[in-house]
Amino acid sequence: MAGTTLLLPLLGAAPSAAGDSSAGDSSAGLQRAFASAAAEYHVPQSVLLAVSYLQSRWDTHAGAPSVTGGYGPMHLTDARTAIASAPHHSEGTEDARGDSARAALHPDVQLPETEIPARLETLPKAAGLTGLSAEELRTDPAANVAGGAALLAAAQQDLGEPLSTDPADWYGAVARFSGADDTATAASYANDVFEVLRTGEERTTDAGQQVALAARPDLAPDTGQLARTGLRTLNQNGTECPRTVSCEWIPAPYEEFGDGDYGNHDLGDRPAAQSIKYIVIHDTEGAWEGVLRLVQDPTYVSWNYSLRSTDGHIAQHVKAKDVAWHAGNWYVNAKSVGLEHEGFLANPDAWYTEAMYRSSARLVRYLAAKYGIPLDRQHILGHDNVPGPTTSTVAGMHTDPGPYWDWRHYFELLGHPFKATAGKRGGLVTIRPDYATNQPTYTGCVTKGVPCASHGSSEVRLYSAPDETSPLITDIGLGGRAPTTDVNDLSSRVSTGQQYAVAGRDGDWTAIWYLGQKAWFHNPRSNPTAVNATGLVVTPKEGRTSIPVYGRAYPEASAYPTGVPAQTVSPLPYTLPEGQRYVVGDKVPGEYYYAVTFATDSHQVVRGKELYYEIQYGHRVEFVRAADVDVLPSR
């Protein structure tokens, strides 16, 4: 109360920029808004800029909410927009375990009701501090910045700290601004903000405005303030995370229930028994508190890590040695680690915070280094890139994290940006549109058939001829269903970072081999949506008119020992025709992890002599038998 009382004189009037509708019209408008709010609320402008960068990279998103109901450059949250109606693994036909050797699991559950945490109600608090309306705080960037400044000043006063002009004195307030309720997460967030302060940043926002923050490489914050924030201490015992993130152990239960049934993962011995080849990126389709309750339900499914959008906090649920049920393909589950990111695929104008992107990238870098996983798009998969294991499962596979996940920025944070590695004679292209300006039309975000709001996207649409009036590419694996522009229809879309063999060029159009077809996408020289690359490709062996394509790399029948039922090596409804080429990801032996009972004494890894190549076949990866193909340089 004392802190709030001290702050009241500073909040008697809204900053002048907030009421100036022209502030956002000029190229300097947002920069001026930061300066005005900093002066009005006595917050160092550099601190305000750095906090905003970690929240939104200074983007305004035209007033649309983030995946957790956060608005504007300061990501002021309003929980009314952050409520989901169905959990991620319950809204489709996909069996998250993805193993035909055991009956499919289709949990019929709903997200439990939860209290709204304070981190999802910062916008109403900012409204009370500034006297600005909630509508202004949502839609006017200058007002939004003012609201963020008021929250920072209030946090500083609540900690008994002076409204200093020295950024080093604001570590505790920045930690509190994160909304985290524990010291590790708050410290991780504050450390990121001060790293931005040290390195400086400059970029053009999604509204076309130039914003800059000068570097302060020698800045050393007063980290001792963290002890006075009154936040709880995390249980980090046993977590498998890098030291640069906050990580909490919230275990998924390995328990029996019913008659011989159990959940919600399998015990294993990775990487000793089998290698970890993939990291799968998901979004939760639910809010944090409810999702955590679900993963602790033995009758539900599981994943290895959850990541929170507001501050990048991580919860680990399943050890890397064990196999979580998350991808809908048992082969991929047995070879992967699953990361669920708090968010919603089809929310119009959905966007993720920089804090979560950075935290996720640090975790993925750590896991990739530990398990030897290549940092490319055939090993760092979206859930939407995981193949259906059998023909009957293809149509029910999930489509998250969807077209609004910024793969280009994510791989920049991973330290592996997508670059041109060849000229036109390289034979391959890497999909790489400019996320902000690449805005293909999607439908069905809110109502079936109704266009979604315009939004930056990682994905590029494919046509049957070099003309946008031509039919879209059809995915025959979906039973002949006509392709659409629905946000969940992957039939005719390629995603940033994916690589394909060039099948032709025609002016501003490029053709690739995709789903057994020649598919065209617009690739103008003035604003390219792909860059040239080189690498290895597979093509059918000479004399073969086509070869089968598989959704999993299972061993031949003779490899299975007594007591382990041989799994069917069943081709999908796709083929790889002669003359076509597809990019190689990995060469792997056929492998199957037998784990269908709660008792682990019968669990074992079956490894065959038959070899497979993982390929980038369509939007999803697939597999072909090594004996069926020749491997060639892409040239």
What does this structure look like?
With 635 residues, this protein is of the alpha+beta class. It has four domains: 2-78 and 121-228, Lysozyme (Orthogonal Bundle), CATH 1.10.530; 236-403, Peptidoglycan recognition protein-like (Lysozyme-like, 3-Layer(aba) Sandwich), CATH 3.40.80.10; 429-534, no CATH class; 539-633, no CATH class. It is built from twelve helices and 28 strands. Helix 4 crosses helix 6. It is globular, with a radius of gyration of 25 Å.
Please render the helix and strand layout as text.
Layout: H1 2-7, H2 29-41, H3 45-56, E1 70-71, E2 76-77, H4 122-130, H5 134-139, H6 141-158, H7 171-177, H8 183-199, E3 201-204, E4 210-213, E5 247-249, E6 255-257, E7 261-263, E8 265-266, E9 278-283, H9 288-295, E10 305-307, E11 314-316, E12 323-324, H10 330-334, E13 336-341, H11 354-371, E14 380-382, H12 407-413, E15 428-431, E16 459-461, E17 493-495, E18 499-506, E19 509-514, E20 517-522, E21 530-533, E22 536-540, E23 546-548, E24 575-577, E25 582-594, E26 604-616, E27 621-625, E28 629-633
Parallel strand pairs: 5-11, 9-13, 9-14, 10-13
Antiparallel strand pairs: 1-2, 3-4, 6-7, 8-12, 10-11, 15-18, 15-21, 16-17, 18-19, 19-20, 22-25, 22-28, 23-24, 25-26, 26-27
